[in-house]
Amino acid sequence: MCEVGRIKHHLKHNLWNPKSTILFVGYQAEGTLGSKLVNGEKKVKIFGEEIAVNARIEYIEGYSGHADQEWLLNFIYSFIQKPKQIFLVHGEQDSQEVLKEKILKTTDIPVIIPDFGETYELKENVELTNKLELTTRYKPLRLEVIERMQKLKDEVEDMAKIIKDEIITEKAKDAEVASINEKIKELERQIVKIIEE
Fold it and tell me: Are 167 and 145 within one domain?
């Protein structure tokens, strides 16, 4: 989905180039950088920098690793002893709801689409044991903050690995290392500033 990892560095260094082709070979979830590119965005932000999309963007849907609805239903039908409960935890909300209705209609197996922060205990009967309550008014913003923090953590871990590889193998010149060091110092200052506010 192009959200974290080395792919962002590859995109940053190739999206601007009209001689480059970026080939997507699987599903891109709505709202992700991959989805924006597949859907024709002309400019995207990567590491806070706006990048013009001049590269050719291609998409091959057939290589997606996700089973479609028919195959998922066939998987459920194949059980000799049917499951007591099904949890749908992956996919877009609308698709999950449609699949849930088809499972209920064709198998009578109960289906739960867990909400953020819900915890279930699997006993004889499935029991909801915890539900994180957020008011509807603040829920999207609060979830976005949590997701952004996780994404930022992942980005910092990826950045650390890449920088260590560059510095340990001495691929980076001293001036580049000094520049990276100054950027990291500025990032530290910004994090401290956010915490102190």
Answer: yes
